[in-house]
Design goal:
The N and C termini lie far apart (about 80 Å). The radius of gyration is 34 Å and the shape is elongated. About 65% of the residues lie in helices and about 5% in strands. Helix 33 (about 680-695) packs parallel to helix 35 (about 725-730). It is built from 35 helices and nine strands. By secondary structure, the chain is mainly α. This is Tetratricopeptide (TPR) repeat protein/DNA-binding XRE family transcriptional regulator. InterPro entries: Apaf_helical (IPR042197), Cro/C1-type_HTH (IPR001387), Lambda_DNA-bd_dom_sf (IPR010982), NB-ARC (IPR002182), P-loop_NTPase (IPR027417), TPR-like_helical_dom_sf (IPR011990), TPR_rpt (IPR019734). It comes from Kutzneria viridogrisea. Keywords: TPR repeat.
């Protein structure tokens, strides 16, 4: 190494230490690896021009380091350097640069680093930056070749590399094996770095991998290249919001009307989904349009319908980048990619993908793996898959349009049929005694290996899948699948009641009510409106609840549905209880109880007994209230949730009757059953009741702790509908 390189290293170390930077700090700021900075400081590596200029900027050396680097540069006649210019707007990727730098520097390295990621994620820029970082470690040269996906064959690539290495055309063998042998021979004993960009497959690049252990290779690909077993695989993810903002500002430069705060810029780059290509295009468009205000530009980009068009600056296009990946897919994968865009949720289960494609789950998983290998979808935990937002837009606009309309309709119907079958199987486990309308014709029950072995498994599935089911309910309504819409909403009601997910409960049932009206099914409308009233009542919106119950009561009577009429009447009685109209509530609950017992509706009768007990408490009839509450508890069978609710009711009666020891014992049991039944709401209710008891006993600190536990479990205990919450409010003053 020259004396100039040594002087550069000494000067660099002094500047770094004066600035108070560690090796890692400086490496992160200049986007070079810590190992390379160390080598330069110790005179073991020559500083490149980019390296010196970056150090000048960070350390404020006013060009002194760049001048030293010029002196330290090797004399003509050294190895060839064919690396393209590194972008001055390179942002982030510190961790990836460290991984690549480590792989290039290790003596035991496999010799190959594979950078994979979706189109537009910045693989090429990262590969070039990493290569420049390591350039001084490869005295025999650094070469860059773009293989253009499948456009350049292995034989053609070998021809280009050999000519670059100085082999005349006449000496290049005509066959691929001959060229590969000559290529490996020419690299024997050399220390070179080769960058192969846009590689399509392992088969394409395998003949280009040198046998010389001192040579290194960086590969970029939109495919995972899993068959390169010995390579160091570096997945490239999207930029963070902060990095995207930094990149946007860097490309825009000093343009006027650029906001000084990061928040509005963050909203713009969020539309780019962390893709450097999209951020660069957006920034370039804003920079080159001086008449736009930032607000006008942000508005143009915010509209999803035209976003892909907005991310096109005439020379670069996000849609075109995605199109290259899409066009390389075989027909079966192109069809699945388009059909996946029909799924209305963010996370797509393998079973749902299989339904959309009309194939078995095993075949769907194989195809999904291939789409993920092409970085067109992303695998998620638990057997789910996800689009990047911009890729979903591309799939919707370009891939889905290639699927015939009839095939799309059939795929949606298969997806909704699967959703109905699985939701019904869950509801049968969560509420086995609940009435359910007959299935839609053609919707078969799940087989034993497709279903859920127990209620806990079913609940776990619903905990993950409910946002998708809500979206499917909306999609069914929008596409005129009205029978599937209202039935799916009906099957989700018990889950929403258990979890107190009031907003999706209300949303699905609004769609369902409109769908039931669209098919002219009065009973379906009545059931849906009745369930919608339950959501409002459970949330504490009593006026809305009463309005819906009254609508349901009139509809059930019109349809001649006696069971439905009893249900609506009972629900109105609960509203009267909450509104303080206790005599009316007790009267109607007794009528409902007699009807339920006459028709053998044991669970509904037990629920009504619980309501009667709560009403009698408000009337001061504690003996009757306790008898009815305990009878309700005895009549519930099998459901931890029902048992927890009934025990909380018994505890409440004891609390109001000043039997505090009995109340505490029942609240403890209710909390235990609530936990076993996975009901944070009932556990929170029991904890609130226990807090009330210790508050009455004059132990405010214990009360505050129990109330805090209850709030952490569920912050939705409404004092209007939950007696324990009302008592807590009074005790807290």
């Amino acid at each position: 190494m020259s004396e100039g390189a040594g002087e550069f290293g000494r000067r660099l170390r002094r500047g770094r230490e004066t600035a108070g930077y560690s090796l890692a700090d400086l490496a992160k700021r200049i986007h070079f690896s810590k190992g390379h900075v160390s080598k330069v400081e110790n005179g073991l590596a020559r500083p490149s021009r980019d390296f010196a200029e970056a150090c000048d900027a960070v350390l404020g050396a006013a060009g002194a380091l760049s001048e030293l680097a010029r002196v330290a540069a090797p004399s003509p006649g050294g190895g060839i350097s064919g690396l393209p210019m590194a972008t001055p707007h390179f942002t982030g990727r510190h961790g990836e640069l460290v991984l690549i730098g480590t792989a290039l520097a290790q003596a035991t390295a496999t010799g190959c680093s594979v950078l994979t990621g979706m189109a537009g994620v910045g693989k090429t820029a990262l590969a070039v930056r990493a290569a420049w970082n390591a350039e001084q470690d490869f005295p025999d040269g650094c070469l860059f070749f773009d293989l253009h996906g499948a456009e350049v064959s292995s034989a053609e690539a070998l021809d280009r590399v050999l000519r670059t290495l100085g082999v005349s055309g006449a000496d290049i063998p005509p066959d691929q094996d001959g060229r590969a042998n000559l290529y490996r021979d020419r690299l024997r004993g050399k220390r070179m770095l080769l960058v192969f960009d846009n590689v399509r497959s392992t088969e394409q690049v395998a003949p280009l991998l040198p046998a010389e252990p001192r040579c290194r290779v960086i590969i970029t690909s939109r495919n995972r290249l899993n068959a390169l077993d010995d390579a160091a695989h570096v997945p490239i993810a999207e930029l963070s919001t902060a990095e995207s903002v930094e990149l946007f500002r860097s490309v825009v430069g000093e343009r006027q009307r650029m906001p000084t705060e990061d928040e509005p810029v963050a909203e713009v780059v969020a539309c780019c989904g962390g893709l450097p290509l999209a951020v660069r295009i957006a920034a370039a468009r804003f920079r080159s349009s001086p008449t736009w205000t930032f607000e006008e530009f942000a508005s143009r980009l915010a509209g999803e319908a035209a976003r892909l068009n907005a991310l096109d600056d005439g020379e670069r296009s996000v849609a075109a980048a995605f199109a290259l990946s899409y066009q390389r897919l075989p027909e079966q994968l192109r069809r699945l990619f388009g059909l996946l865009a029909l799924h209305p949720g963010r996370d797509i289960a393998t079973h749902s993908a299989a339904a959309l494609a009309g194939v078995g789950v095993g075949e769907a998983e194989r195809l999904l793996d291939q789409l993920a290998d092409a970085h067109l979808i992303m695998p998620r935990p638990g057997g789910y898959w996800q689009f990047h937002d911009l890729v979903r837009m591309f799939a919707t606009e370009h891939a889905l349009s290639e699927v015939p309309s009839a095939d799309r309709d059939t795929a949606v119907r298969r997806l909704l049929t699967l959703a109905l079958s699985r939701a019904r199987a869950c509801d049968e486990l969560l509420a086995p005694q609940r009435f359910r309308p007959s299935p839609v014709p053609g919707v078969e029950p799940l087989s034993a290996d497709e279903g859920f072995p127990e209620w806990d498994t079913a609940l776990s599935w619903l905990d993950v899948e409910w946002p998708n089911l809500v979206a499917m309910c909306r999609m069914a309504a929008d596409r005129g699948e009205h029978e599937r819409c209202w039935r799916l909403a009906f099957l989700l009601r018990d889950f929403f009641f258990r979890t107190k997910l009031w907003d999706p409960w209300i949303e699905t049932h609004r769609h369902a009510a409109a769908s039931a009206r669209a098919v002219g099914d009065t009973t379906a409308v009545a059931m849906t409106v009745n369930n919608l009233g339950m959501a409002y009542a459970d949330r504490g919106d009593l006026d809305l609840a009463r309005d819906h119950y009254e609508q349901a009561l009139a509809l059930f009577r019109e349809a001649g549905d006696d069971n439905g009429t009893t249900s609506a009447l009972s629900n109105l009685a609960w509203v009267n209880l909450y509104l303080g109209e206790h005599e009316a509530a007790l009267r109607d609950m007794r009528v409902a109880l007699e009807s339920y017992r006459r028709t053998g509706s044991a669970r509904n009768a037990a629920i009504t007994l619980r309501g009667i007990a709560l009403t009698e408490v408000e009337l001061g009839a504690f003996t009757d209230a306790l008898r009815h509450a305990e009878r309700a508890h005895e009549d519930f069978r099998g459901s931890e949730l029902d048992l927890a609710m009934s025990l909380n009711c018994v505890a409440w009666v004891h609390f109001r009757a000043d039997r505090h020891a009995e109340a505490a014992a029942h609240y403890e049991q209710a909390a235990e059953l609530g936990e076993r039944g996975r009901s944070p709401f009932e556990v929170a209710r029991a904890k609130t009741g226990l807090g009330n008891l210790v508050a009455v006993a004059g132990r405010p600190e214990e009360a505050a702790d129990l109330w805090a536990q209850a709030t952490r479990l569920h912050n939705g205990l409404n004092p209007v509908t939950v007696g324990e919450a009302a008592a807590r409010r009074r005790l807290q003053g």
